[in-house]
Design goal:
Chains: A mainly alpha (about 525), B mainly alpha (about 290), C alpha+beta (about 400)
Order of helices and strands of chain C: HHHHHEEEHEEEEEEEHHHHHH
CATH superfamily of the largest domain in chain C: Cupredoxins -  blue copper proteins
Oligomer: heterotrimer
Number of helices of chain B: 7
CATH class of the largest domain in chain B: Mainly Alpha
Structural class of chain B: mainly alpha
Strand content of chain C: 5-15%
Radius of gyration of chain C: 29 Å
Largest interface: A-C, 103 and 107 residues
Bound molecules: heme-A, dinuclear copper ion, copper (II) ion
Helix content of chain B: over 70%
CATH superfamily of the largest domain in chain B: Cytochrome c oxidase, subunit III, four-helix bundle
Distance between the termini of chain B: 50 Å
Number of domains of chain B: 2
């Protein structure tokens, strides 16, 4: 059969290279570009939110539009930006890091990616339909889609739910592929305890996704049932319970935050080790921590529901189990400190972002500990204190982490160095503006400002003013990242060497930059 | 012909393929159509039908391609192992899906209903405020505001269906043993029997649903009992349907001379799936129909 | 504790509010607690802030020291260790985690257990208030005294639209505050009529979801008279930001006076349903009811929101797209207000019972017959619906009681 041949060594040309891709590097790049684009979309929506909250007056968005904007902001950032970016890094790096020629199931891999744009389209399509007078816009329930608000919501909700189903399919397929790749495609001699930390972090991430995303998909199907097919899963009149939806959502949702966190926590040690010119400290401890975090994350979900009226025993259980997670996470911190300790550090942009990550995510994690207190959460729940917590945990952690990763691997992927000066500007502006944006939100929350409101009482004004100004600067500074990426993609800038960074280790750095289209078609020898 | 490449040899990376992106597009159309239809927008049929057609086309194309590659012998041990792992993890995700549905059943039955009932009755400190003061714990239940309904007895068709599915599990295993022993007649016969049993199961199940709707008044609207009953049995039925279709494809391939005693991943994948569907039914029988 | 507070202030926010220190404290702190629970929580909060601030400083301090001391230019030859070696190093490496565990479960966990249990203990209360969340107002009932009323945002529309200067309590003012006696344990029963709301008054330290179909309980024992303000804390739709909670805590004597006044008003209202009003009276009263209860969905101009809330006004907002909308309306996507010019009985039924399965709530328990009659008269005579009809409370009562 002549049609079945091993693919040529050069990429096919034209658009089909991307549409029909089976090459892990191409698919990885598509994920990255898509994710970064969605980061801009989500960020733009965040700027709309902040513009609305600049003053205690509704100038920018009506209340219905506001609810839709925060919902889409949350969904796009989580599912459209962060997950695809980390999945892109996984696709690009994992085969190279373990010495495999490609992902285990290349066509499935492509499918996983191409399910994302349709999902994104479905999510925003109701806004388009609204423009021509159909429906009232997209989902407006917050990204948590609490029933029965989500049952009452307009037609846009169905589009969003179906988008979630597609996202679930995509994540499940991508995760299966990653698990199989890690289990099956390692080069000879690459035992599981030699596999790089990043690969381990993704193994746990993928296992988590397989273990929880189907539950959300089942839940969304039930929501659609309640909306259109007369079922009563979430309605008391038929014996159902709205709180059941909260359980389902958070059974998925809490592991989901570690899905966002782990890949960035996996890439961090590589960067720290490279720029400290030292081996990674506590490799095994980190691997075991990932495993423990993975397991614990599945049993703590209801710490998001301390005010839902669960019996005190449940509140206590979920509080205590949640607190337990602080230990493995603290182990990770300890190992990061250990990795840079007595190293010979230089501070290129990736390193700056990695260090910023440690500090900012430290704040996110420590405030998470505060929230896990079931009693005090009576005050924090659904206030801006919570919003600030999760932005420290989401932006301060994963987003800083993937930005560090992007700067770290950009020269590898494109073969071009980015502009170090602009990179540093990007870092410092981001660090400062981020804190200016979100520290006032902690304070507003403590002072009593609820989340998800388009308009607020006068005593919250100053917090919001500062926060909004910070957010505008924060948004504008991300354009530096975009510029750096576009520049490198267009082939401008200095040629990068294969090793790229003086202290870099790992199989991916034994290859030229950019690596050839197919790598490790014969497995490398692992010492 | 198996293992042309050894453990340390290279890995087969398929050439660029149009099918994945087409399938994604097809699902987009299906999703769009569904979203429009549930909002009673008749135009939704168009994308739904187009998406459905495209899906069928892709499935034929994609699987046909894989079958062709198998026949051409491009897959070695390592590829085979990748497929096995892949199928296993896929089934794991399905297990989670059904586990969540069972979780919903347990929650509604053991938490939601007693909780609702705890507000009413003479001993409740809240009965004066209860929205439904007369509600008490019961299972099956259509909830405080639901209509009464009859239930399907486990010892009629469901028990028979249990037997049918169990024996279908035995017949695939029998077919598998035949294949491994090089007895292709047993392979074909076993597969055909399995398919027959699967179809019979589905027919009974359809009858059962009609019975529930028309005579028992047990419908999707029958509160949490009806909802969990139909979502569990319905999704199970859907999986049996898919399994039956896959078995048929395997049977066709068996007739075309595919599969060797050593190398028959396609067959095994489908039989794993079938066993999984089997186990789900057993749980269903116990927790939905019986207890 | 006062030392703890100073410490926490020192750590948490030196960045922003440096100059106005005293001012700042009022800013970042919780509202002054007036119940035992709220005081417990404030204590936990302060403790937490001290501890996490300390952890943060230790962590960041270590990191910054390392950044300074172990930079390439100062320390050109990196070490090569990859983990603790020997018993002593292992001990020191595990030490922080032991400390963290003690902090988690000992220092922070134990006070929390105490307040979680206290929070759930509603027994021994002297009085019960039932609070029902509606889209978008709160209904308060005092079952033992046979009174109840609805509490709706009273900030005028023009302040929200920024056409008038904003009051001090912008968005935190209601027409009927919840009135509670001080120094008494009050059980609060929470219910919801539509979606999940959350009853949150920061000074009381309680935040409890109201779940439709279910009941939830919590309690307060207020030890200081005053006016306490809170907000709905669970996203409940477009009016979520506009359903504040205002509680007026008064001493027992004042409470009793208030009670008898309210009881008298309730009696008068029941009587009023029999009286006939003029159309002018009804329209004037109806406008108020409409702005308070209906405008959130159907909009102050009565135009509704395309696709979500049907217009009360005869026309529709997309006049230019009329043919297309007519086609869409046939598909169930878009409804315009035909009811409000159709038979009166249907109109009354809709407002009384709502439209099940849609957001249109039932107002039978929230509004008096007189109010319903007024709002319907108003709807049928304003917004370009010049029907000229008058709907009397007695008509509403007749339909309500099924005669
Ligand atoms: C990546 C995302 C992420 C991460 C990692 C976390 C991590 C944690 N989160 Fe967070 N969380 C969110 C994202 C995240 N969270 C989101 C999105 C929400 C809101 C969702 C919504 O409602 O919309 C939320 C909400 C949320 C709640 C619900 C609050 C409420 O609704 O009322 C709670 C409660 O327990 C909580 C707790 C925690 C805890 C205990 C951790 C722990 O994992 C933290 C462990 C870490 C530590 C304990 C730090 C240890 C470090 C040191 C000791 C060293 C310090 C060193 C330096 C500072 C240099 N989170
Ligand atoms: C990874 C996740 C993530 C990230 C990165 C962010 C980033 C940001 N978020 Fe987000 N946020 C969430 C996840 C995230 N958020 C979630 C889950 C919610 C809860 C939603 C809910 O309630 O349901 C939320 C809610 C939320 C709120 C609360 C809304 C409310 O409760 O009423 C606010 C308010 O300030 C906010 C602000 C911001 C800001 C200012 C940023 C900034 O960091 C953004 C920085 C800006 C950019 C990155 C844009 C840069 C680019 C441009 C400006 C140029 C654009 C150009 C082109 C398109 C060419 N977010
Ligand atoms: Cu009611 Cu938010
Ligand atoms: Cu969580």
């Amino acid at each position: 059969m002549s049609a079945i041949e091993h693919p040529a060594d050069a990429p096919p040309s034209g658009i089909t290279r991307w549409l029909y891709a089976t090459n892990h590097k191409d698919i990885g790049k598509m994920y990255l570009v898509f994710g970064i684009a969605m980061f801009l979309v989500g960020g733009l929506l965040a700027e709309l939110i902040r513009a609305e909250l600049l003053t205690p007056t509704m100038r920018v968005l009506s209340p219905e539009a506001y609810n839709q904007v925060i919902t889409v902001h949350g969904l796009v950032m989580v599912f459209g930006a962060l997950m695809p970016i980390t999945a892109g890094l996984a696709n690009y790096l994992i085969p190279m890091m373990i010495g495999a020629p490609d992902m285990a199931l290349p066509r499935l891999n492509n499918w996983g990616f191409w399910l994302l744009p349709p999902a994104a389209l479905l999510l925003v399509m109701p806004w388009g339909l609204k423009l021509i007078g159909i429906g009232n816009g997209t989902l407006d329930t917050g990204w948590t889609m609490y029933a029965p608000l989500s049952i009452q919501s307009g037609p846009g909700a169905d589009f969003a739910f179906i988008a979630v189903l597609l996202l679930g399919l995509s994540s499940t397929m991508a995760s299966i592929n990653i698990i199989v790749t890690i289990l099956n495609q390692r080069a000879p001699g690459m035992t599981m305890l030699k596999v790089p930390v990043f690969v381990w972090s993704w193994l746990i991430t993928a296992l988590l996704l397989v273990a929880v995303f189907p539950a959300l998909m089942a839940g969304v199907i039930m929501l659609i049932g309640d909306r259109h097919f007369g079922t009563h899963f979430f309605s008391a009149a038929g014996g159902g319970d709205p709180v059941l939806w909260e359980h389902i959502f958070w059974f998925f949702g809490h592991p989901e935050v570690y899905v966002l966190l782990l890949p960035s926590a996996g890439i961090l040690p590589h960067i720290l080790a490279t720029f400290a010119r030292k081996p990674i400290y506590g490799y095994k401890a980190q691997v075991y921590s990932f495993c423990v975090i993975g397991v614990l994350s599945i049993v703590v979900w209801a710490h998001h529901m301390f005010t839902s009226g669960m019996p005190p025993a449940a509140n206590i259980y979920f509080m205590l189990s949640t607190m337990a997670i602080s230990v493995p996470v603290a182990v990770l911190f300890f190992c990061w400190f250990g990795t840079v300790w007595r190293g010979a550090m230089t501070f290129e942009t990736p390193m700056l972002f990695a260090l910023g990550y440690i500090v900012l995510f430290g704040i996110g994690g420590l405030t998470g500990l505060v929230l896990s207190d079931a009693a005090a959460d009576q005050q924090y729940h659904n206030t801006y204190f919570l919003v600030a917590h999760f932005h420290y945990a989401l932006f301060g952690g994963p987003v800083m982490g993937v930005i560090a990763g992007i700067y770290y691997y950009l020269p590898k992927v494109t073969g071009r160095m980015y502009s170090e000066t602009l990179g540093r500007w990007h870092f410092w502006l981001t660090l400062i503006a981020f804190n200016v944006t979100f520290i006032p939100q902690f304070l507003a929350g403590i002072a009593g400002m609820p989340r998800r409101i388009p308009d607020y009482a006068l005593q919250f004004w100053h917090f919001n003013l500062v926060s909004s100004v910070g957010a505008f600067v924060l948004g504008a500074s991300q354009l530096l990242l975009v510029y750096n990426i576009v520049r490198a993609m267009r082939g401008d800038g200095e040629q990068a060497s294969g090793r790229v960074w003086e202290g870099a280790r790992g199989l991916e750095f034994t290859l030229p930059s950019p690596p050839p289209f197919h790598t490790f078609t014969t497995p490398p020898v692992i010492e | 012909m198996s293992a042309v490449t050894d453990e340390h040899g290279h890995y087969f990376v398929p050439e660029p393929s149009p099918y994945p992106v087409l399938l994604a597009g097809a699902l987009f159309l299906v999703g769009l159509g569904a979203a429009l239809l549930v909002n009673s927008f008749a135009l939704g049929w168009a994308p739904l039908a187009a998406g459905g057609g495209l899906t069928v086309y892709v499935l034929f194309g994609w699987f046909g391609r894989v079958v062709g590659e198998t026949r051409a012998g491009v897959y070695g041990l390592k590829e085979d192992r990748a497929f096995r792992w892949g199928m296993m993890w896929f089934i794991t995700s399905e297990v989670v899906f059904f586990a969540s549905l069972f979780g919903v059943l347990f929650y509604e039955r053991n938490i939601a209903i007693p909780w609702l009932a705890s507000f009413s009755g003479p001993h409740s400190p809240l009965s004066a405020y209860a929205p439904w003061p007369a509600f008490h714990v019961a299972w099956p239940s259509s909830g405080p505001a639901g209509k009464p309904f009859g239930i399907v007895s486990p010892w009629g068709i469901p028990a028979l269906n249990t037997l049918i599915l169990l024996s279908s599990g035995a017949t695939v295993t029998w077919a598998h043993a035949g294949l491994r022993a090089g007895n292709r007649t047993r392979l074909k016969l076993g597969l055909a029997l399995t398919i027959l049993l699967g179809v019979t199961f589905l027919a009974f199940q359809a009858r059962e649903f009609a019975h529930a709707y028309d005579e028992l008044g047990l419908t999707l609207h029958s509160g949490v009992y009806g909802a969990t009953f139909f979502i569990l049995t319905g999704f199970h039925g859907l999986h049996v349907t898919v399994g039956t279709i896959m078995l048929s494809a395997i049977l066709v391939r068996a007739f075309k001379g595919d599969f060797t005693p050593q190398d028959h991943f396609g067959f095994e994948a489908v039989s794993w799936y079938w066993h999984f569907v089997d186990v789900v039914w057993l749980l269903l029988f116990v927790f939905v129909y019986w207890l | 504790m006062s030392k703890a507070r100073v410490l926490s202030a020192g750590g948490a926010i030196p960045v922003l509010l440096g100059p106005a220190w005293a001012h700042a404290r009022a800013f970042y702190d919780f509202q002054a607690p007036v119940t035992p629970i709220a005081r417990d929580i404030l204590f936990i909060h302060d403790l937490f802030l001290v501890i996490i601030t300390a952890l943060f400083l230790i962590g960041t301090g270590t990191l910054l020291y390392s950044v300074y001391a172990h930079r390439y230019r100062r320390n050109g030859i990196p070490a090569t260790f990859t983990g603790p070696v020997g018993r002593k190093q292992w001990f020191w490496a595990s030490f922080p985690f032991a400390v963290l565990l003690v902090l988690d479960y000992g220092v922070l966990g134990i006070p929390a257990l105490h307040s979680i249990l206290a929070l759930a203990n509603t027994s021994g209360s002297a009085m019960t208030v039932k609070v029902t969340g509606h889209q978008w107002n709160w209904q308060y009932e005092y079952p033992a005294y046979g009174i109840g009323f609805t509490s709706t945002l009273s900030t005028p529309q023009d302040q929200i639209a920024d056409e008038a200067p904003k009051d001090k309590h912008f968005l935190l003012e209601v027409d009927h505050p919840l009135v509670l006696p001080t120094h008494e344990k009050i059980r609060i029963i929470l219910a919801s009529a539509d979606v999940i709301h959350a009853f949150w008054v920061p000074a009381f330290g309680i935040k409890q979801d109201a779940v439709p179909g279910y009941l939830r309980q919590t309690w307060v024992e207020i030890d200081k008279p005053g006016t306490y303000r809170g907000q709905c804390a669970e996203l409940c739709g477009v009016g979520h930001a506009f359903m504040p909670i205002v509680v007026r805590a008064v001493d027992q004597v004042a409470f009793n006076q208030w009670l008898s006044r309210e009881q008298a008003v309730a009696a008068a209202q029941r009587a009023a349903s029999g009286i006939a009003y003029t159309r002018g009276q009804l329209v004037t009263a109806g406008r108020k009811v409409f702005d308070a209860y209906c405008a959130a969905c159907h909009q102050p101009n009565g135009l509704g929101l395309a696709g979500a809330f049907p217009p009360i006004a005869g026309g529709h907002p997309f006049a230019a797209a009329a043919p297309m909308i007519a086609a869409l309306r046939a598909r169930g996507f878009y409804r315009a207000g035909d009811i409000v010019v159709g038979p009166i009985a249907n109109h009354i039924r809709i407002v009384l019972h709502g439209i099940p399965g849609t957001p249109m709530p039932s107002f039978a328990s929230q509004l008096s017959a007189a109010d319903i009659a007024a709002v319907i008269t108003y709807e049928r005579n304003d917004f370009g619906n010049h029907t000229g009809e008058t709907v009397e409370p007695s008509q509403v009562l007749a339909i309500k009681t099924g005669h």
